[in-house]
Automatic annotation (TrEMBL):
One of its GO terms (cellular component) is ATP-binding cassette (ABC) transporter complex. It comes from the Bacteria. Residues 14-244 form the ABC transporter domain. This is Spermidine/putrescine import ATP-binding protein PotA. The gene is potA. It comes from Bosea psychrotolerans.
Length: 367
């Protein structure tokens, strides 16, 4: 696409090394190191207060770190002021100027950079076309929908060909349908112009939908960075296992010692012995938590597998979720997709649970 070509820039990578940022006694970012590849879409995902915005602000230059380095395209920007970094930013609030037309809004960063009128107009129109809003240039922001305003904000952020686009929860003010539409659209746009994106969100579905890789944060610490598939299939911490997708946690004790990746026996709190895969080294008798996804549990005869009792069956069209009571008294969830061959057991029925040993991940349980 011609317009996209006009906006495409040589994409660059970002390296964050040992980043620490304190606010008084709060360690907002606690030793984060990660690298974003040129042209990559990286999501920073974590609960509220986990340090996502602070990391983005440090990349942008609006916060200076207490420790660590930030490099963009190989250049050390740690102490460079924001206006000299040439990075694009889009925030949750569109922050468009209400008294300016859409085109004037988009051209504004070019005016600040001293470009002439003709070139400003040409580049602003190209950016407007890239976000598929040709013909809307003369309107005021108030005459656009929320999604259109957010597209204008994106156009304004890419019009001066920034090296990197930083986005902080840019879709969270939109309603669900529009948000899902804009997730796909923003992803397409990123691919089209080939720009490196760091995208902050607390919404795991949004992160998994949009990102090439996701960096999961908790309390200012990087828990894991990987593809959506890696994070879902092989979470490295119990936090990631619980935060990405749905997970059952069963408490117990390791029968013997085990190293990472090894099959271990676990005595559950109810007394049953089951098998799991150790994610980290565990000592004999150490408390562990086994994480198992609801859709990875299989139903069978109560004589084989872990005995459980059906407490509730929740039909949701595409799947049925069973709430099952274990001998320990703990309740866990099992999901059967619609159209699965087996009939759903009745409430009160006793069943036997089994799983592939690689789907049961055992984490050390300090608590
Ligand atoms: N300017 C600030 N002054 C004091 N504390 C701050 C400031 N900015 C962030 N914090 C604190 O740092 C932590 C991380 O905040 P933030 O990066 O905004 O998290 P997130 O974007 O993941 O919700 C929180 O405990 C927050 O209260
Ligand atoms: Mg934030």
């Amino acid at each position: 696409m011609l317009q996209s070509a006009a906006l495409s820039s040589r994409s660059v990578g970002i390296e964050i090394e040992g980043l620490v940022k304190r606010f008084g006694s709060v360690k907002a970012v606690d030793g984060v190191s990660l690298a974003v590849e040129p042209g990559e879409f990286l999501a920073l995902l974590g609960p509220s207060g986990s340090g996502k915005t602070t990391i983005l602000m440090a990349i942008a230059g609006f916060e200076y770190p207490d420790e660590g380095r930030i490099r963009v395209g190989g250049e050390d920007l740690t102490w460079v002021p924001p206006n000299r970094r040439n990075l694009g930013m889009v925030f949750q609030k569109y922050t468009l100027f209400p008294h300016m037309s859409v085109l004037e809004n988009i051209a504004f960063p070019l005016k600040m950079r001293g470009l002439g009128r003709a070139e400003r107009e040409e580049r602003a129109r190209a950016a407007l076309a890239t976000v598929r809003l040709d013909g809307y240039g003369e309107r005021k922001p108030s005459q656009l929908s929320g999604g259109q305003q957010q597209r204008v904000a994106i156009a304004r952020a890419i019009v001066y060909k920034p090296r990197v686009l930083l986005m902080d929860e840019p879709l969270s003010a939109l309603d669900k349908n529009l948000r899902e539409e804009m997730q796909i659209e923003t992803k397409h746009l990123q691919r089209e112009i080939g720009i490196t994106v760091v995208f902050v969100t607390h919404d795991q579905t949004e992160a998994l939908t949009m990102a090439d890789r996701v960096a999961v944060l908790d309390q200012g610490r990087l828990q894991q960075i990987g593809s959506p598939h890696d994070l879902y299939e092989t979470p490295r911490t119990a936090f990631v296992a619980g935060f990405i997708g749905e997970t059952n946690f069963c408490k117990g004790r390791a029968q013997g010692a085990g190293v990472a990746g090894q099959r271990i026996g676990v005595t559950l709190d109810g007394g049953d012995v089951v098998e799991a895969t150790a994610v980290e080294a565990v000592a004999q008798g150490a408390p562990v938590r086994i994480a198992i996804r609801p859709e990875r549990l299989s139903l069978g005869d109560p004589a084989t597998g872990l005995a459980a009792c059906v407490e509730e069956a929740i039909y949701a069209g595409n799947a049925t979720t069973l709430l099952l009571a274990l001998p320990s008294g703990q309740s866990i969830r099992l999901r059967v997709p619609a159209g699965a061959a087996l009939a759903s057991p009745a409430v009160g029925e006793r069943v036997g649970l089994s799983w592939r040993v690689e789907d049961a991940r055992a984490f050390g349980d300090a608590a």
